[in-house]
Design goal:
The complex is a heterodimer. By secondary structure, chain A is of the alpha/beta class. Chain A has 3 helices and 5 strands, in the order E-H-E-H-E-H-E-E. Chain A has helices at residues 8-16, 33-38, 52-61, and strands spanning 2-3, 23-27, 44-49, 70-74, 87-93. In chain A, strands 4-3-2-5 form a 4-stranded parallel sheet, with helices on one face. In chain A, helix 2 links the parallel strand 2 (23-27) and strand 3 (44-49). Chain A is globular and about 35 Å long. Chain A starts with a strand and ends with a strand. The model of chain A has no long low-confidence stretch (mean pLDDT 96). By secondary structure, chain B is of the alpha+beta class. In chain B, strands 1, 2, 3, 4, 5 and 6 form a 6-stranded antiparallel sheet that branches. The mean pLDDT of chain B is 94. Classes of the chains: A alpha/beta, B alpha+beta. The A-B interface holds A 1-6, 8-9, 12-13, 15-17, 23, 25, 27, 77-80, 82-94, 96 and B 1, 3-5, 7-8, 10-14, 16-23, 56, 59-60, 72-73, 75, 77-84, 88-89, 92, 131, 133, 135.
Protein backbone atom coordinates (compact mmCIF):
# COMPACT_ATOMS: atom_id res chain seq x y z
CA UNK A 1 0.00 0.00 0.00
CA UNK A 2 1.22 3.48 -0.79
CA UNK A 3 -0.24 6.46 1.03
CA UNK A 4 0.03 10.06 -0.11
CA UNK A 5 2.96 9.61 -2.48
CA UNK A 6 3.01 13.30 -3.30
CA UNK A 7 3.37 14.38 0.32
CA UNK A 8 0.26 16.54 0.27
CA UNK A 9 -0.52 15.94 3.93
CA UNK A 10 2.77 17.21 5.35
CA UNK A 11 2.79 20.20 2.98
CA UNK A 12 -0.67 21.13 4.24
CA UNK A 13 0.51 20.87 7.85
CA UNK A 14 3.62 22.98 7.24
CA UNK A 15 1.65 25.59 5.30
CA UNK A 16 -0.48 26.48 8.30
CA UNK A 17 1.73 26.12 11.37
CA UNK A 18 5.36 26.63 12.23
CA UNK A 19 6.73 23.20 12.97
CA UNK A 20 10.36 24.22 12.80
CA UNK A 21 11.91 24.30 16.32
CA UNK A 22 8.55 23.35 17.83
CA UNK A 23 7.80 20.88 20.60
CA UNK A 24 5.10 18.69 19.08
CA UNK A 25 2.71 16.21 20.65
CA UNK A 26 1.01 13.92 18.14
CA UNK A 27 -2.10 12.31 19.61
CA UNK A 28 -2.92 8.97 18.03
CA UNK A 29 0.36 8.40 16.24
CA UNK A 30 -0.47 4.77 15.36
CA UNK A 31 2.48 3.07 13.68
CA UNK A 32 4.29 6.38 13.14
CA UNK A 33 3.44 6.78 9.46
CA UNK A 34 2.76 10.52 9.66
CA UNK A 35 5.29 11.12 12.43
CA UNK A 36 8.17 9.90 10.28
CA UNK A 37 7.16 12.24 7.46
CA UNK A 38 7.47 15.46 9.44
CA UNK A 39 9.52 14.36 12.46
CA UNK A 40 12.84 15.78 11.27
CA UNK A 41 11.53 19.35 11.32
CA UNK A 42 10.43 20.08 14.92
CA UNK A 43 12.84 20.17 17.87
CA UNK A 44 11.04 17.25 19.50
CA UNK A 45 8.07 15.05 18.73
CA UNK A 46 6.27 12.85 21.22
CA UNK A 47 3.76 10.48 19.67
CA UNK A 48 1.17 8.95 21.97
CA UNK A 49 -0.85 5.86 21.16
CA UNK A 50 -2.97 3.59 23.40
CA UNK A 51 -2.23 0.43 21.39
CA UNK A 52 0.88 -1.40 22.59
CA UNK A 53 1.14 -3.28 19.29
CA UNK A 54 1.13 -0.11 17.22
CA UNK A 55 3.71 1.43 19.53
CA UNK A 56 6.03 -1.51 19.00
CA UNK A 57 5.60 -1.03 15.24
CA UNK A 58 6.34 2.69 15.52
CA UNK A 59 9.43 2.22 17.68
CA UNK A 60 10.75 -0.54 15.42
CA UNK A 61 10.16 1.41 12.23
CA UNK A 62 11.50 4.73 13.48
CA UNK A 63 14.34 5.81 11.18
CA UNK A 64 17.69 6.03 12.93
CA UNK A 65 18.06 9.71 12.10
CA UNK A 66 14.85 10.53 13.99
CA UNK A 67 15.54 8.60 17.19
CA UNK A 68 17.06 11.61 18.90
CA UNK A 69 13.98 13.75 18.23
CA UNK A 70 11.02 11.39 18.19
CA UNK A 71 9.70 9.43 21.18
CA UNK A 72 6.68 7.15 21.34
CA UNK A 73 4.69 6.82 24.57
CA UNK A 74 1.71 4.66 25.44
CA UNK A 75 -0.96 7.04 26.66
CA UNK A 76 -4.49 8.22 26.00
CA UNK A 77 -5.68 11.70 25.09
CA UNK A 78 -7.98 12.32 28.08
CA UNK A 79 -5.07 11.75 30.52
CA UNK A 80 -1.87 13.13 29.03
CA UNK A 81 1.19 12.27 31.16
CA UNK A 82 2.90 15.60 30.54
CA UNK A 83 3.32 18.81 32.50
CA UNK A 84 1.45 22.01 31.72
CA UNK A 85 2.66 24.10 28.79
CA UNK A 86 4.94 21.35 27.51
CA UNK A 87 4.16 21.71 23.80
CA UNK A 88 3.91 24.31 21.07
CA UNK A 89 1.74 22.15 18.83
CA UNK A 90 -0.72 19.40 19.73
CA UNK A 91 -1.68 17.44 16.63
CA UNK A 92 -4.74 15.22 16.72
CA UNK A 93 -3.92 12.95 13.80
CA UNK A 94 -7.25 11.35 12.91
CA UNK A 95 -7.76 10.78 16.62
CA UNK A 96 -10.22 13.43 17.86
CA UNK B 1 -13.29 14.13 23.36
CA UNK B 2 -13.90 17.23 25.44
CA UNK B 3 -11.51 15.74 28.03
CA UNK B 4 -8.93 15.30 25.29
CA UNK B 5 -9.29 18.93 24.25
CA UNK B 6 -8.97 20.10 27.85
CA UNK B 7 -5.80 18.08 28.24
CA UNK B 8 -4.47 19.47 24.96
CA UNK B 9 -5.20 22.96 26.27
CA UNK B 10 -3.38 22.22 29.53
CA UNK B 11 -0.26 20.91 27.84
CA UNK B 12 -0.05 23.64 25.20
CA UNK B 13 2.23 26.57 25.85
CA UNK B 14 0.97 30.15 25.54
CA UNK B 15 -0.10 30.88 21.95
CA UNK B 16 0.23 27.18 21.16
CA UNK B 17 -1.53 25.55 18.23
CA UNK B 18 -4.06 22.74 18.24
CA UNK B 19 -4.27 20.86 14.96
CA UNK B 20 -7.26 18.70 14.08
CA UNK B 21 -6.48 16.47 11.10
CA UNK B 22 -9.47 14.31 10.17
CA UNK B 23 -10.84 12.54 7.13
CA UNK B 24 -14.27 13.68 5.99
CA UNK B 25 -17.03 11.11 5.78
CA UNK B 26 -17.10 11.27 2.01
CA UNK B 27 -17.72 7.80 0.56
CA UNK B 28 -14.68 8.02 -1.73
CA UNK B 29 -14.65 6.37 -5.14
CA UNK B 30 -12.58 3.25 -5.73
CA UNK B 31 -10.71 3.69 -8.99
CA UNK B 32 -8.76 1.24 -11.09
CA UNK B 33 -5.78 2.87 -12.75
CA UNK B 34 -3.80 1.71 -15.75
CA UNK B 35 -1.15 3.61 -17.66
CA UNK B 36 -3.77 5.41 -19.71
CA UNK B 37 -7.12 4.98 -17.98
CA UNK B 38 -8.81 5.69 -14.66
CA UNK B 39 -12.16 3.98 -14.10
CA UNK B 40 -14.44 4.20 -11.09
CA UNK B 41 -15.41 0.66 -10.07
CA UNK B 42 -16.92 1.19 -6.64
CA UNK B 43 -16.85 3.25 -3.48
CA UNK B 44 -15.87 2.93 0.16
CA UNK B 45 -18.58 2.96 2.78
CA UNK B 46 -16.94 5.01 5.54
CA UNK B 47 -20.18 5.84 7.33
CA UNK B 48 -19.24 3.86 10.45
CA UNK B 49 -16.99 6.77 11.42
CA UNK B 50 -19.80 9.34 11.19
CA UNK B 51 -20.79 9.18 14.86
CA UNK B 52 -17.29 9.87 16.14
CA UNK B 53 -16.79 12.61 13.57
CA UNK B 54 -19.96 14.39 14.72
CA UNK B 55 -18.87 14.00 18.34
CA UNK B 56 -15.48 15.51 17.50
CA UNK B 57 -17.19 18.46 15.78
CA UNK B 58 -19.35 18.97 18.87
CA UNK B 59 -16.31 18.87 21.16
CA UNK B 60 -14.54 21.48 19.05
CA UNK B 61 -17.62 23.71 19.05
CA UNK B 62 -17.77 23.42 22.84
CA UNK B 63 -14.11 24.34 23.15
CA UNK B 64 -14.58 27.35 20.90
CA UNK B 65 -17.72 28.47 22.76
CA UNK B 66 -15.88 28.13 26.09
CA UNK B 67 -13.12 30.38 24.80
CA UNK B 68 -10.38 27.73 25.02
CA UNK B 69 -9.28 28.24 21.42
CA UNK B 70 -9.91 30.45 18.45
CA UNK B 71 -10.06 29.15 14.92
CA UNK B 72 -6.97 30.17 12.98
CA UNK B 73 -7.28 28.59 9.57
CA UNK B 74 -8.61 25.55 7.83
CA UNK B 75 -8.01 23.70 4.61
CA UNK B 76 -8.90 20.49 2.84
CA UNK B 77 -6.92 18.18 0.63
CA UNK B 78 -7.19 14.79 -1.05
CA UNK B 79 -5.26 11.99 0.64
CA UNK B 80 -4.49 9.22 -1.83
CA UNK B 81 -4.24 5.52 -1.05
CA UNK B 82 -2.91 3.08 -3.64
CA UNK B 83 -3.16 -0.69 -3.49
CA UNK B 84 -1.92 -3.45 -5.77
CA UNK B 85 -4.83 -5.80 -5.16
CA UNK B 86 -8.42 -5.86 -3.96
CA UNK B 87 -7.48 -8.13 -1.05
CA UNK B 88 -4.81 -5.65 0.07
CA UNK B 89 -7.40 -2.88 -0.07
CA UNK B 90 -10.12 -4.78 1.81
CA UNK B 91 -7.63 -5.90 4.44
CA UNK B 92 -6.65 -2.29 5.04
CA UNK B 93 -10.24 -1.05 5.14
CA UNK B 94 -11.24 -3.76 7.57
CA UNK B 95 -8.37 -2.95 9.93
CA UNK B 96 -9.36 0.68 10.47
CA UNK B 97 -10.57 1.93 13.86
CA UNK B 98 -13.98 2.22 12.18
CA UNK B 99 -14.08 -0.65 9.68
CA UNK B 100 -14.98 0.34 6.17
CA UNK B 101 -16.58 -1.66 3.40
CA UNK B 102 -16.45 -1.88 -0.35
CA UNK B 103 -19.48 -0.90 -2.41
CA UNK B 104 -21.25 -2.45 -4.21
CA UNK B 105 -19.14 -5.40 -3.00
CA UNK B 106 -15.53 -6.59 -2.94
CA UNK B 107 -16.52 -9.31 -5.45
CA UNK B 108 -17.83 -6.74 -7.94
CA UNK B 109 -14.73 -4.59 -7.57
CA UNK B 110 -12.57 -7.72 -8.02
CA UNK B 111 -14.39 -8.52 -11.28
CA UNK B 112 -13.77 -5.04 -12.62
CA UNK B 113 -10.15 -5.13 -11.48
CA UNK B 114 -9.58 -8.53 -13.11
CA UNK B 115 -11.08 -7.29 -16.38
CA UNK B 116 -8.69 -4.32 -16.42
CA UNK B 117 -5.73 -6.47 -15.40
CA UNK B 118 -6.40 -8.90 -18.24
CA UNK B 119 -6.06 -6.09 -20.76
CA UNK B 120 -3.26 -4.09 -19.17
CA UNK B 121 0.21 -4.71 -17.81
CA UNK B 122 0.11 -2.55 -14.71
CA UNK B 123 -3.08 -2.03 -12.73
CA UNK B 124 -3.59 -0.34 -9.36
CA UNK B 125 -6.46 0.64 -7.14
CA UNK B 126 -6.82 4.12 -5.71
CA UNK B 127 -9.03 5.95 -3.23
CA UNK B 128 -8.86 9.67 -2.65
CA UNK B 129 -10.12 10.69 0.79
CA UNK B 130 -11.06 14.26 1.50
CA UNK B 131 -9.18 15.32 4.64
CA UNK B 132 -10.03 18.34 6.75
CA UNK B 133 -7.25 20.22 8.47
CA UNK B 134 -8.19 22.78 11.11
CA UNK B 135 -5.82 24.91 13.18
CA UNK B 136 -6.79 26.56 16.44
CA UNK B 137 -4.83 29.03 18.54
CA UNK B 138 -4.79 28.64 22.30
CA UNK B 139 -6.34 31.56 24.12
Amino acid sequence: MIQDPRGVEVRALFAAAEFSRARVLEVGCGDGRLTFRYGSVPDTVIGIEPSADLLVSARTACPANLRGQVTFVQATAPALPFRDSAFDIVLFAKSL
Amino acid sequence: MVDALQEARRTLDANGTLVDLRPAICRPDIEVLTSNQTIVVGAVDDSSAAGDSKAADAAIRRGLAAGWFVSRCNSEFDFEHYWDSVSEMTSYLGSRRHPMFVLPSAAEVQKAYDAMAAANEAVRLRCRWRVMLNFYLLL
